[in-house]
Write a structure and sequence with these properties.
Layout (H helix, E strand, L loop, with lengths): L6 H18 L5 H14 L2 E16 H20 L4 H23 L7 E14 L4 E12 L4 E5 L15 H7 L7
Antiparallel strand pairs: 1-2, 2-3, 3-4
Length: about 180
């Protein structure tokens, strides 16, 4: 069968163009939309974005985050107890009070300990802001809570920092004991 020269452009338009356009018209997942909103809120309105990678890196349950906070304050107690000053003794006592509070939270949240508190996504993307500026993110991590809150955009893998605030009652526990979290 011999192809007519007039038929070749039609075949090209029917087969090749849709494949090319499908790659340009990227449909974003809800998680990717959350990342776009986060970037828009911190750096400027995103006009266009293309993700080269977007994968789930970690899921953290309420129990895992409580364990992480417990380890943090256990270390603080050990370190502060090694000093003799009143300031360090008070700091160790505050950390011990928080450790006791974490155990109370664990009991109060016993029915939701296995619930996912947040998911960590690893991604790379390129895009443009509405003002014409371009951006590129390589091997970035971002946490998205179960309520759809994005936080801790990082590139070093230390994406658990400060995530205890999403445990119900944890921020109040810290405030009650007037301590700031070092992690």
């Amino acid at each position: 069968m011999r192809l007519n020269n007039k038929l070749i452009p039609v075949l090209f338009a029917m087969v090749i163009c849709p494949m090319f356009l499908a790659g340009c018209d990227e449909t974003l997942t809800p998680e990717q939309e959350t990342v776009v909103s986060y970037i828009s809120g911190t750096s400027g309105k995103v006009a266009r974005i293309s993700f080269s990678t977007f994968e789930l890196a970690d899921s953290t349950t309420v129990a895992e985050e409580l364990d992480r906070r417990k380890a943090l304050f256990s270390t603080k107690v050990k370190v502060e107890s090694g000093y003799k000053s009143e300031k360090h003794r008070q700091s160790a006592a505050q950390a011990e009070a928080i450790l006791a509070g974490i155990e109370t939270l664990r009991q109060d949240l016993s029915s939701s300990l296995d619930d996912v508190l947040y998911r960590t996504w690893k991604f790379s993307c390129k895009g443009k802001f509405e003002d014409g500026g371009e951006f590129e993110c390589r091997d970035m991590y971002i946490n998205i809570t179960r309520d759809g809150v994005a936080c801790n955009l990082k590139n070093d893998g230390r994406y658990h920092n400060g995530m205890g605030r999403f445990i119900p009652g944890y921020s109040e526990l810290l405030e009650k004991n007037r301590i700031t979290e070092d992690e």
